[in-house]
């Protein structure tokens, strides 16, 4: 079965999904939906993101149906999987419409801004009998994928400690409170990557204890200690949008296992991508090595792996944890627990969102 896909929304992420399909097997883009006549005609030169190239002025749309309205795409019987690449505040409405139209859904992260919206989306997928997947791409990036594989294998013993960092400088538009709220703040738009990855890696924590800065009720910067049932496991992270202007983006991780430590640290300083510490394995057996995690060399290679996993899920009916809407909802719930912990100054249960 070849999975026929339609993409709704042609901003940078919609373009990224389209380009990622060039390397997948078992699926293809058969339709796009955008109200921009220019984009429907293949001129994507106005599209630009914070990584990768600008869009092409001559995108080849041969064999791809182009729709102005999303309803037209959802009514197309030749589409199996709908990619929703719209702003976060539109995720729920479009996901519910796609599921009601009998389509499987891959919606960009985060699943939603409000927890109630995420729960309604989960319920709608169950009612429709269709797959609902959320495109949290971080586990598909080579360094993060490799680290997860090593920890999961148990080769170096159990995980004892984990530290993640993900920070950005405030983009010029972040002063607009309306836009900031539509993103859900940096806790939901940025830091949710780390919460999702830790869910995949360690499971859902019992509680969180966070300190940080709130803006309009949303997390602007946070430092979190995740509390698990295992007293020998220590997990923490730092994330937010308050870095100096020339620290445009930075991410790192450090994992401590009984027989090894795994590190990675990189970011954009000024306009230069700098790898402070390449993926590094420090093991008792082999000392210091720099593993090559593999993966494609294209700028959108991680998204290709992500979309390949989604295609495989549609074909098999089995959704991996990395794409599961339940995992994405749990990550969102942790974001709300962190915000409440900052607000109250107390540890907060992830399940109940109440003080422990």
Name of the CATH superfamily of the largest domain: Dihydrodipicolinate Reductase, domain 2
What profile does the largest beta sheet have? 9 strands, mixed
**CATH domain class of the largest domain:** Alpha Beta
Number of helices: 10
How many domains in all? Answer: 2
The coarse overall form would be globular
CATH topology of the largest domain: Dihydrodipicolinate Reductase, domain 2
Succession of helices and strands: EHEHEHEHEHEHEHHEEEEEEEHHE
Distance between the termini: 49 Å
The class by helix and strand makeup works out as: alpha/beta
Quick synopsis:
With 356 residues, the chain is α/β, with parallel strands linked by helices. It has helices at 12-20, 37-40, 70-74, 91-100, 115-128, 142-153, 177-183, 185-202, 301-316, 325-344; strands spanning 3-8, 27-33, 65-67, 81-84, 104-108, 132-135, 159-168, 207-215, 218-227, 234-240, 247-257, 260-269, 272-283, 287-289, 348-349.
Topology:
Elements: E1 3-8, H1 12-20, E2 27-33, H2 37-40, E3 65-67, H3 70-74, E4 81-84, H4 91-100, E5 104-108, H5 115-128, E6 132-135, H6 142-153, E7 159-168, H7 177-183, H8 185-202, E8 207-215, E9 218-227, E10 234-240, E11 247-257, E12 260-269, E13 272-283, E14 287-289, H9 301-316, H10 325-344, E15 348-349
Parallel strand pairs: 1-2, 1-4, 2-3, 4-5, 5-6, 7-10
Antiparallel strand pairs: 7-11, 8-9, 8-15, 9-10, 11-12, 12-13, 13-14
Helix pairs in contact: 1-9, 4-5, 5-10, 7-8, 8-10
């Amino acid at each position: 079965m070849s999975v026929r896909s339609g993409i709704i929304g042609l901003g940078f992420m919609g373009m990224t999904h389209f380009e990622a399909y060039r390397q997948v097997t078992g699926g293809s883009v058969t339709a796009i939906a955008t109200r921009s006549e220019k984009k429907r005609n293949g001129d994507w030169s106005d599209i630009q993101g914070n990584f990768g190239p600008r869009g092409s002025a001559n995108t080849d749309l041969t064999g791809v149906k182009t729709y102005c309205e999303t309803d037209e795409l959802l009514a197309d019987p030749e589409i199996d999987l709908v990619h929703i690449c719209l702003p976060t505040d539109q995720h729920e409405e479009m996901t519910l419409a796609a599921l009601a139209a009998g389509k499987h859904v891959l919606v960009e992260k985060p699943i939603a801004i409000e927890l109630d919206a995420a729960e309604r989306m989960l319920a709608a997928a169950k009612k429709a009998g269709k797959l609902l997947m959320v495109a949290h791409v971080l586990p598909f990036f080579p360094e993060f994928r490799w680290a997860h594989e090593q920890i999961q294998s148990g080769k170096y013993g159990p995980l004892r400690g984990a530290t993640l960092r993900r920070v950005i400088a405030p983009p010029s538009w972040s002063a607009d409170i309306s836009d900031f709220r539509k993103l859900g703040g940096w806790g939901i738009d940025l830091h949710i990557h780390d919460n999702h990855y830790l869910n995949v890696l360690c499971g859902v924590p019992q509680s969180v204890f966070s300190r940080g800065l709130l803006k309009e009720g949303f997390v602007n910067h946070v430092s979190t200690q995740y509390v698990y049932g295992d007293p020998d496991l220590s997990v923490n992270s730092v994330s937010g949008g308050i870095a100096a202007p020339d620290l445009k983006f930075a991410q790192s991780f450090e994992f401590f296992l009984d027989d090894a430590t795994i590190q990675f640290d990189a970011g954009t300083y000024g306009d230069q991508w700098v790898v402070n510490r390449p993926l590094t394995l420090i093991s008792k057996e082999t000392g210091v090595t720099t593993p090559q995690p593999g993966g494609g060399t294209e700028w959108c290679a991680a998204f290709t792996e992500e979309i390949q996993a989604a295609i495989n899920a549609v074909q098999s009916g089995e959704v991996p944890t990395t794409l599961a809407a339940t995992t994405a909802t749990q990550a969102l719930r942790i974001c709300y627990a962190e915000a409440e912990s900052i607000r109250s100054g107390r540890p907060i249960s992830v399940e109940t969102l109440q003080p422990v």
